[in-house]
Design a protein that fits this description.
The protein is of the alpha+beta class. The chain is 20% helix and 30% strand. Strands 6, 7, 8, 9, 11, 12, 14, 15, 19 and 20 form a 10-stranded antiparallel beta sheet that branches. Strands 21-22-23-26-27-28-29-30 form an 8-stranded parallel β-barrel, surrounded by 4 helices. It binds alpha-D-galactopyranose (GLA).
Length: 733
C-alpha cells in the first residue's frame, strides 16, 4: 500500500519508493500539510509545528481564546481565501451573497486501487497507481472540495488535482482554483524555471526565493514560449549530482500560473494551476469544476536524477499510442527548404534525394491548401491546392510512398484567416469582442474552440483530408497567442470560462484524432515550442522544440527542455547555413550532433547539398538509427552547462545496463593557446572497460567518469564530437 491513513493520528502518508508526502487532519477538520521529501514510514510530523500566539493572524472561531491555532502560520494542504491565511490562496470563490471566503474542513476520504483519471483532460495513466480522494466541506455555505492524489510508487510520482463542487443552493463563481498548493517549513530554497520567447524557449533560470511573492505564468491561451508550466524548487546546495529538489509540472496546455511565496515565518508556499486571469467559472447548485492535474517528483539526489525520473514518468504515464515504443521516422521537412514556394515536382525531387540518403519520411509543411501562398491568408480552408501540387494529395502521397518514403502533413486547425471561405461563411467562429476591432497575430484570428460546433466543423475538414491520402504523420501548429478573448456563444457572466473551455475543446479534438488515427505520428508545434507541455505530450509524443534551428542556440533550448521532458519529445532538425534565424554558420556535423539529441530530422533543400554533405547525411541517419534506443530510452546526462564557463557544451546518453554511452560535445568558444577541455562522463560502470568505437582505445569507466574525456583542440568554430563507448565483454573468470 502506497497510501496510509493512521486512524489514531489522523495522518495521511503517501509513500513512493524514495519519497513521502504527509498531511494531517487537526482540530475541527483543518487539513494541514506536513511533509514532502525523502521516504519516511508512518509517523506524525505535526510536532514540527510550533503553536504560539501569533499576532495579526486569523484563528478559527471554534478555538475561542486559544490564539495558538494560527491559520496564517500552519502549513495548509489547500489554502482557502478569506479566513485568516493571508498567504497565496489556492481557492477563491464568489459566494451567492457576494462574499469571497471559503473554509474547507475535512469530511471524508477514500483510497482506491488504480490511478484516477480526469474527464476530458489529459492526466497520467497507469494501472499500477493508487488514488486517494479527500472530501472537504465549508460548513457555513455547503461548498465542497475533492482533493485527488495519485501515487505511482515505483516511478516516485505523486499527482494532484482538485474538484470544486457547488453544494450550496445559490449560484457560485469560482474565481481561482489551483491544482496544487505545496507548503514547506523552510525558506532557504531556490526556484528554477524556464522562460523565453519565440525562437528561444525554455531558458534556464535559477534564483533564490525572496520574501513575498514571485510568479511566472501565461495569459496567452497557451502554455507559451515565455514561461513553461514546470518549476523546480531546490536547496541552495543542490546541483546536478546531489541535493534535494522538487519538480512540479502542470499537465495543461492553456494559460497557467505558478507562484512561490516566502512568508513572515520563513516558510514557503507554491501554488500552481490554471491562470486566474481570464478565469471566472460559474457553478449552478450541484455543478462542479475540475482543475487540471499537477505532477510532482522529489529526489534528494540532484537535478540529473530528477530529470531521469521525469523522463521515465512522462514516458510511462503520459506518452501514449503506437509511437511511444515504435522507432520514430527520420524526416525531411520542406519548411526551411522552400517556405511557401514549392510545387509538387519540387517536393518529389526532395523526396527522391531523401530516399537516397536513408531518410524515412517527407513532411509537407505550410502552404498546401486554399490560397495559402504566404502567411497572410488561407487558414481555415483545408482544401488541397491541387494546382500547386500538380495533382491530388492522394497522387502526391502515392508517388512519395512509391519511392519507399512515408508522407506527413502540416495543419494549423485552430486558426482562421479573414480572407478565407470559412470566414466568409462563419465570421462568428473567430474569437473577437463584438464592437471592437480584433487584434491580429501573424495576420490571423483564432477560432473559438470553446464552441462545440466550431471544433466539429474543423475536425470534419481535417479528417476528410486525412482520409483522402496515406498520411502517416501530422504536425499540429498554433501560431499566435489569443487576444480579445470572448465567445459569442456564451452569456456575459460566462465569458470567464472561454479560455479553459477553449482548451477543453482542443483536447476533445485531439482525443478524437488519436482515437481515429492511431497510426499517425502526431507532432505538436506552436511556432516551435510555444505549447511544449505535458498536456500536449499526452496526444503528440513529440513537439517541434523551437523555430530556432541554429545549432548553437539550440544547445541552451534543448538543455532547458531536458530538465522536465524526455529526449524523445524534442523535435530537432538539421537546417541550412547560414542559419535562417541567426545567420550563424556552424559545421554540418555539429548541426547533426545537436539535432540527434531528440527526434531527428532535416529541414533544408537536400538537392542543394554538396556531395560531401550528402555522404554526411547518409552516415548521420545510419548513426542515429544505430543509436536510436540509446538516445531515446537511455539516461540523459547534462555534463556541462551551456551557461557555464566550460568552452564546450556536453551531454551523454547511457544505456540502462550502463554498457553503452554516446558522448556529445560542441565547442562554444575558441581560444588561442587553449587550455585543455576535460569533460567527466557519468553513469558508467566504474569497473567496466569501454572501447571507443572506431579505435583500439580502451578506458575504464572510472577513468572516464573521474578523470574524464579530453576534447581535441578545435580546428574550426563550433566543432563537435560524438564518441560512442561500448563496454567490452568481461573475460570469463
Ligand atoms: C510555425 C512552425 C514552423 C512552420 C511554420 C509554417 O512557425 O513552427 O515550423 O511550420 O509555422 O507556417
Amino acid at each position: 500500500m502506497a497510501i496510509l491513513f493512521n486512524q489514531n493520528t489522523k495522518v495521511f502518508t503517501l509513500q513512493t519508493k524514495n519519497s513521502a508526502y504527509q498531511m494531517k487532519m487537526i482540530d475541527y477538520g483543518v487539513l494541514i500539510h506536513l511533509y514532502y521529501g525523502k521516504r519516511l514510514e508512518d509517523c506524525d510530523l505535526s510536532y514540527l509545528i510550533q503553536r504560539s500566539d501569533r499576532g495579526f493572524c486569523g484563528n478559527p472561531y471554534e478555538m475561542q481564546h486559544d490564539r495558538t491555532f494560527s491559520l496564517d502560520y500552519f502549513p495548509q494542504e489547500y489554502s482557502c481565501f478569506g479566513i485568516g491565511d493571508y498567504r497565496s490562496d489556492a481557492v477563491r470563490v464568489i459566494n451567492g451573497d457576494g462574499s469571497n471566503a471559503v473554509d474547507y474542513r475535512f469530511s471524508s476520504y477514500r483510497i482506491e486501487p488504480g490511478k484516477y483519471r480526469l474527464e476530458g483532460m489529459p492526466s497520467m495513466y497507469g494501472e499500477e497507481g493508487e488514488t486517494l480522494v479527500i472530501t472537504m466541506k465549508d460548513q457555513s455555505t455547503g461548498m465542497e472540495l475533492e482533493l485527488y492524489y495519485g501515487v505511482f510508487e515505483q516511478d516516485d510520482v505523486i499527482t494532484r488535482a482538485a474538484r470544486i463542487v457547488n453544494g450550496t443552493g445559490d449560484k457560485v463563481y469560482v474565481d481561482r482554483a489551483m491544482s496544487l498548493c505545496l507548503d514547506f517549513m523552510r525558506a532557504d530554497l531556490d526556484w528554477i524555471h524556464f522562460y523565453g520567447k519565440h525562437a528561444m524557449e525554455r531558458e534556464f533560470e535559477r534564483s533564490p526565493l525572496q520574501h513575498g511573492r514571485q510568479a511566472i505564468g501565461s495569459v496567452r491561451g497557451a502554455s507559451s514560449h515565455q514561461h513553461n508550466p514546470f518549476v523546480i524548487l531546490c536547496g541552495k546546495e543542490t546541483g546536478e549530482d546531489w541535493g534535494e529538489c522538487w519538480g512540479i509540472s502542470l499537465v495543461y496546455s492553456g494559460g497557467f500560473y505558478a507562484e512561490a511565496e516566502v512568508d513572515q515565518f520563513n516558510q514557503t508556499r507554491l501554488i500552481m494551476g490554471i491562470s486566474p486571469d481570464n478565469f471566472l467559472w460559474q457553478l449552478e447548485p450541484g455543478e462542479a469544476f475540475q482543475t487540471p492535474e499537477c505532477l510532482m517528483i522529489y529526489t534528494d539526489k540532484g537535478l540529473t536524477q530528477l530529470s531521469h525520473q521525469y523522463h521515465r514518468a512522462v514516458f510511462n504515464h503520459i506518452i501514449r499510442g503506437k509511437w511511444k515504443e515504435e522507432p520514430r521516422p527520420v524526416l525531411i521537412n520542406n519548411w526551411e527548404a522552400t517556405y511557401f514556394q514549392f510545387t509538387g515536382d519540387k517536393l518529389l525531387s526532395i523526396a527522391r534525394e531523401a530516399k537516397e540518403l536513408g531518410i524515412d519520411m517527407l513532411v509537407l509543411d505550410d502552404g498546401w491548401f486554399g490560397k495559402r501562398n504566404s502567411d497572410n491568408s488561407g487558414l481555415g480552408d483545408w482544401q488541397v491546392n491541387e494546382k500547386k501540387l500538380g495533382g491530388s494529395l492522394r497522387e502526391l502521397a502515392e508517388k512519395i510512398n512509391g519511392m519507399g518514403l512515408k508522407f506527413g502533413l502540416w495543419f494549423e486547425p485552430e486558426m482562421i484567416s479573414e480572407d478565407s471561405i470559412l470566414y466568409a461563411k462563419h465570421p462568428d467562429w473567430a474569437i473577437r469582442i463584438p464592437g471592437r476591432p480584433a487584434n491580429i497575430g501573424r495576420s490571423q484570428l483564432v477560432l473559438d474552440f470553446s464552441r462545440e460546433e466550431v471544433v466539429d466543423g474543423i475536425q470534419e475538414m481535417v479528417f476528410s483530408v486525412l482520409d483522402e491520402a496515406n498520411i502517416e504523420y501530422v504536425k499540429w501548429d498554433f501560431n499566435r497567442s489569443i487576444t480579445n478573448l470572448y465567445s459569442s456563444a456564451l452569456p456575459p457572466e460566462r465569458q470567464g470560462e472561454v479560455a479553459h473551455r477553449y482548451v477543453l475543446g482542443l483536447y476533445r479534438f485531439l482525443e478524437n484524432f488519436v482515437n481515429r488515427y492511431p497510426n499517425i505520428l502526431l507532432e505538436g508545434c506552436s511556432g516551435g515550442g510555444g505549447r511544449f507541455d505535458l498536456g500536449m505530450l499526452y496526444y503528440s509524443p513529440q513537439i517541434w522544440c523551437s523555430d530556432d534551428t541554429d545549432a548553437v542556440e539550440r544547445l541552451k533550448i534543448q538543455y532547458g527542455t531536458s530538465f522536465g521532458y524526455p529526449i524523445s519529445a524534442v523535435g530537432s532538425h538539421v537546417s541550412a547555413c547560414p542559419n535562417h534565424q541567426t545567420f550563424r554558420k556552424t559545421p554540418f556535423e555539429t548541426r547533426a550532433t545537436v539535432a540527434m539529441a531528440g527526434s531527428f530530422g532535416y529541414e533544408l533543400d537536400l538537392n542543394a547539398l554538396t556531395p560531401e554533405e550528402k555522404e554526411a547525411v547518409k552516415r548521420q541517419v545510419k548513426e542515429y538509427k544505430a543509436h536510436y534506443q540509446l538516445i531515446q530510452r537511455g539516461d540523459y546526462y547534462r555534463l556541462t552547462s551551456p551557461y557555464g564557463k566550460c568552452r564546450a557544451a556536453a551531454w551523454s546518453f547511457v544505456s540502462p545496463d550502463r554498457r553503452e554511452c554516446l558522448f556529445c560535445a560542441v565547442i562554444t568558444q575558441l581560444q588561442a593557446n587553449p587550455d585543455g577541455v576535460i569533460v567527466k562522463l557519468k553513469g558508467l560502470n566504474p569497473q567496466g572497460r569501454y572501447r571507443l568505437e572506431g579505435t583500439e582505445e580502451i578506458y575504464s569507466g572510472s577513468a572516464l567518469m573521474y578523470g574524464g574525456v579530453l576534447l581535441p583542440i578545435p580546428r574550426e568554430e563550433y566543432e563537435s564530437y560524438r564518441y560512442y563507448f561500448k563496454e567490452e565483454e568481461q573475460p570469463e573468470a
